[in-house]
Amino acid sequence: MNDSDYPFKYSNFGIVTLGAVLEQIYDNDYTSLINDYTSLINDYISDDLGLANTKVSDGSGDLGNYWKWSKTDAYAATGAILSNITDMMQYLKIHIDEKLDYLSIAHESLAEVDEVTCWLTGYDIHRLRAQIDKGVDFETFFFEAPQINPNAYKITGVICGVRVEEIEDPLMQKNRWLDKLVDELAKGKTMDKILKN
After folding, report:
1. What are 87-100's pLDDT values in tens digits?
2. CATH number assigned to the domain covering 87-194
3. Is 108 helix (H, G, I), strand (E, B) or coil?
4. Residue 83 CA neighbour count, 13 Å, CB half
5. How far apart are alpha carbons 55 and 81 in whole angstroms?
6. Taking the chain, what is the end-to-end CA distance rounded to the nearest angstrom?
7. Domain ranges within the chain, ordered by starting residue
8. Are 67 and 58 in contact (CB under 8 A)?
């Protein structure tokens, strides 16, 4: 990876391709290949992270609204992890508090995520952390935001297959604005290009 002429960027399609390659190498469907992996990941999620409502999907349990992964679903290789908002907020808190020693390695850009979140919502870092600690849902998070940045309407482009400037539901649009800002960070854009001042 260090010898490449481009920065690393996660790609669902790339992982799908990797899953297809593994199927060819092992002459087996991907869902059969990941049985051991699924058990290890679920143990890590429940035992090490303490997330009771998060697991690799197997179509059972009490989370409800399971995505039905079939043996022929190419995108199963991208994770197929199911969770709920409480566990997702707890997972975020684990990262923010760096409860596991090795997490500090993964946090080099966390300050930038905080910065774009505060820019969008008007929270300062202390109020942002307080909201995360309380485990508020997205509706409450945005409802209680001190002030949505007046330049947020300048956030344009596609995220999750949807053009953010065309979203009519105000809450969904705010969610997607934040998604788009974080996505641009992940793509390596500089902060001055991301923040639409």
Report:
1. 888 888 887 776 76
2. 1.10.8.290
3. coil
4. 17
5. 6
6. 34
7. 12-83, 87-194
8. no
